[in-house]
Design a protein that fits this description.
The structure holds 2 protein chains of 2 kinds. By secondary structure, chain A is an alpha/beta fold. Helix content of chain A is 32%, strand content 26%. Chain A is globular, with a radius of gyration of 24 Å. Chain B has helices at 18-35, 37-56, 67-97, 100-106, 110-139, 149-173, 176-193, 205-211, 215-229, 234-254. By secondary structure, chain B is an all-alpha fold. In chain B, α3 runs antiparallel to α9 (215-229) and α6 runs antiparallel to α9 (215-229). Classes of the chains: A alpha/beta, B mainly alpha.
Chain lengths: 321, 258
């Protein structure tokens, strides 16, 4: 847990009930139950969770799109439920489904949105930076997923916001768009923008986020920097740091003889080995010394720490929901 | 490239003034409406066809006036229904589906500005319709009572308000495909049998008793009173007011933004 320094967003014990019409059994459904988080200026804060975990609902409560049932939200020091145009002008929002009119063309649409602000960003720079100039004559309806996402990001940024909300920013992005979008997001963070994004992709969080909240069933289940979650988070749970060593070498080697039998050693197929468990530098030293003594040079060698995905699955369960 | 990187000026320059935001949205929605071919057919072509049809056929004979004088006020009422109810309802329904309403309400425009912009667009298109339909009617020999213009235009605005409220209520509560079906079907039914184009006295007795209480009948009949006789019938004004307030309040209560 950390304490806020200059938070752009503080959420404290958020509760959101929906229904009864929206739920299946005709009862009120609690989609967010007591979630707390904050986001700093100049940082990327990620809400990581499976579909239906309550990420989008949390974001929409913070944006003033949904009224919360309980708890406290402060966005740039104001309550989003009662704040007006001046708060909205300082906050950029990229919705999950884009929210762009299908009949519009990119440039007139961006120019229209820019008109809502006293001092918008220069259109040309943004358009060029996000590569929108390559499809500026195409109607929104005919854009690819990646093009739509880039246009949505431009629409969220045109007002030069202090806070940026991105709901599943990499959904539908081709690798090229992903590169463009991720680079810009990182640059905006470095320029001091407070960025809050949701994702169900560990990769995104691992690559972008300065701080991650893992959310499940509308609750916080873990939080920390990516490094925290990968190491300390795991140690805190069961006191070990597990790694797996993969290598290819001649078939039929007795690896246990070299490094002991406290690790899980498997020859997955002839000549392909994996050694999993609490690997220490001593293990590695023993193994390489053994190889040196026998004149064995492995054809490949790879060491993997736990991925954020492992952490996420450990915490939120491996059940399909 | 530095131009896309914000300089994060403090304090932030803030939103454009409210009036400018509303005018911008009004202009944007107006252009969207008149660039949409299907809407143009409903808003201009169909009313003009109906106007010419009623002028060259004896349908309206024997109602105490020449054909075009009786037909034109009803056609103007039909225009208000096309734009405010069917056109605007369908557009709003699909905007809701595509998240456009939600996105725009996160910008400085906000929900109030969004609705104000829609109302402005309805009024702007209505002005164009009055010019086109009025112009064609004049060529066909339409001679409205001069003193009918002021109440007539006021009633058109009131009628547009009622149909906008109804259109938003439908668009905000059912799926866009259903909005499409409902508003088109009602446009045909109310247009033909709702006392808009065909005066109430030409309808079956049972229908006559109902149409006076419908927004279509109240608008059609009161516009004919205004342009044919220069008179304003207060009961119709009350009916239109009720059709504005009740669906308007219902839309405020039940409109779903997503």
């Amino acid at each position: 847990m950390r304490s806020p320094e200059s938070p752009v967003l503080t959420i404290d014990g958020l509760i959101k009930d929906v229904g009864p019409l929206a739920s299946l059994d005709g009862k009120m459904l609690r989609v967010v139950s007591g979630l707390s988080m904050f986001a700093e200026r100049g940082q990327i804060t990620a809400l990581l969770g499976a579909n239906g975990a309550g990420k989008t609902t949390t974001l929409e409560c913070a944006q003033g799109l949904q009224k919360r049932t309980g708890g406290r939200i402060e966005l740039l020091g104001q309550d989003p439920d009662t704040a007006g145009a001046s708060l909205r002008s300082r906050v950029g929002v990229m919705l999950q489904d884009g929210g762009l009119p299908p009949s519009a063309r990119p440039i007139p649409l961006l120019r229209h949105i820019a008109g809502m602000y006293q001092s918008p960003l220069p259109l040309d720079g943004l358009v060029e930076r996000l590569g929108i100039d390559t499809f500026s004559r195409t109607g929104v309806r005919r854009l690819s997923g990646g093009q739509k996402q880039r246009l949505s990001l431009a629409a969220a940024l045109i007002g030069n916001p202090e806070v940026l909300f991105l709901d599943e920013p990499s959904a539908g992005l081709d690798p090229q768009s992903r590169q463009i979008v991720f680079e810009l997001i990182a640059e905006l963070r470095d320029a001091g923008m407070g960025i809050i994004l949701t994702t169900h992709l560990m990769d995104d969080a691992q690559r972008l986020a300065d701080y991650v909240y893992i959310i499940d069933a509308g609750r916080n289940v873990a939080e920390g920097t990516v490094a925290d979650l990968l190491s300390h988070g795991h140690e805190a749970m069961d006191g070990v740091t597990e790694r797996t060593l993969f290598f290819d070498a001649p078939a039929g080697l007795d690896i246990a003889a070299a490094i002991g039998d406290d690790l899980t050693i498997t020859e997955t197929r002839a000549g392909s080995y994996s050694v999993a468990g609490t690997l220490t530098p001593q293990h590695l030293a023993k193994l390489t010394a053994w190889w040196a003594g026998k004149g064995i040079m492995p054809a490949s060698l790879r060491l993997e720490a736990r991925s954020l995905e492992d952490v996420f699955l450990d915490i939120s369960g491996r059940d399909i929901r | 490239m530095t131009s896309a990187t914000p300089t994060l000026t403090t304090p932030h320059a803030g939103p454009a003034p409210l009036l400018r935001r509303i005018l911008l949205q009004g202009r944007y929605e107006t252009l969207t409406m008149i660039r949409n071919g299907e809407q143009l057919i409903l808003a201009v072509i169909m009313p003009l066809l109906a106007l010419v049809g009623l002028t060259v056929t004896p349908l309206l004979d024997g109602l105490g006036g020449n054909r075009v004088d009786i037909a034109t006020p009803g056609i103007l009422a039909l225009c208000a229904m096309s734009t405010a109810f069917t056109g605007q309802g369908i557009a709003t329904g699909f905007d809701r589906r595509y998240g456009v309403l939600r996105f725009l309400s996160t910008t400085p425009l906000g929900r109030i500005g969004l609705i104000a912009g829609k109302i402005l667009a309805v009024l702007a298109v209505l002005v164009l319709q009055v010019l086109v339909v009025g112009g064609v009617a004049a060529l066909l020999g339409w001679q409205p009572r001069p003193e009918g213009w002021l109440p007539g235009l006021g009633l058109l605005v009131l009628g547009a308000a009622a149909f906008t409220a109804l259109g938003l209520l439908v668009a905000g509560t059912v799926r866009p495909e259903a909005t499409l079906a409902i508003t088109n079907l009602l446009w045909i039914l109310l247009g033909a049998l709702g006392g808009i184009v065909v005066p109430a006295e030409r309808l079956p007795v049972l229908a006559q008793n109902i149409v006076h209480f419908l927004p279509s009948g109240a608008l059609g009949q009161s516009l004919r009173d205004a342009f044919l006789h220069g008179s304003v019938s207060l009961p119709y004004v009350l009916v239109l007011l009720l059709w504005t307030i009740v669906p308007g309040a219902a839309a405020v209560r039940w409109f779903k933004w997503n």
